[in-house]
Amino acid sequence: MKTRLLIPILTVAATPLSVTAQLDFRTTNRLVFGTPADLTASIVFADVDGDGDADAVLANGRHWAQVNEVYVNNGAGQFTWGYPLGPEKATTYAVPAGDLDGDGDLDVVVGNDRAENWVYLNNGSGHFERVWSVGPEIEPTRSAQLTDLDGDGHLDVLVTNRGTPNGFYLNDGDGRFGPKRSFGDPDGSTIAVAVGDVDADGDVDLVLANRDGQANQILFNDGMLGFDEVREFGTGSDETRSVLLADLNQDGILDIVAANIGEPNAVYLGTGDGWFEDGITFGQDEGTYASTVADFDGDGDLDILVGNVRGRNAVYVNEDGGRSWSERLVGEEVESTYGVAAADVNGDGVPDIGFANSESLNRLFLSVPAR
Fold it and tell me: Cα(266)–Cα(283) distance, rounded to whole angstroms?
């Protein structure tokens, strides 16, 4: 069943931060990853070697096969050495990390464009071996993420595909996955998916970011991992490249962040029953390809980090319970940022920023709050 929910957009201008609230994001020519030839699609911060700090895993290639990489944190937020995730080259878009086999270390799933998606198991020291494929499908995968869909304590895999059915695969507990179970439109152009209980019925629902003029969708879980009830959100023709679920106004209800190209990004505040308020825009028409949330200014609520193509990247600071957003540009560079990540990489208690860039160096920015 499909319900069409075309949400009006309420435009809110992003204002500069006040002096007292300003943030500083600093980088140097040593806070970089990879080479200018890398076609990096995403970055993940994860403690792959178990030493207590956040390392970086980079997904390289996009449509052209390259080697994916691991960069090791030296404990001070510097990534001074690294190595290939594996010897294989691939057209990789995503490298989510999590403990797939229950042995206490973080493994990696590699989501590829028109190649099988792979499982890499960690040997406990941060080195990986490709052991098997998630499934036999060869599809145009654009994102992959790990979450426990069926509540059995094991991380399952969701992949989104452009032009072919999306799918999820249930983990047997050893890092092997059952057959693909499709979700969304069979010929949809889904770029990303967010997972969370948007209607407060105790199971997780799926929020889809679609492109090619297709409406964004909320897929409601029937309690048995059936996602046939569909509700559309947004304008009906958004070109959305990233979608997040997060509680932006601290009411205990998940809200939606939609990152768009050719139009401003938007926040939709949830009402708790699967419905959302009118969209609140932030940013301009930069072309946002990636987003994440973190409390960058330390005031207890979540701010939004965006990565842009042909525009400067930015943090939008949460004002007035998610109803107003103040822009803080990050760096001077105008690059093609396809992925973003936030984590405290230098142990100072403040989230830092990683940018995954295509055809330019990937960059780390350390966050320094104003004193």
Answer: 9
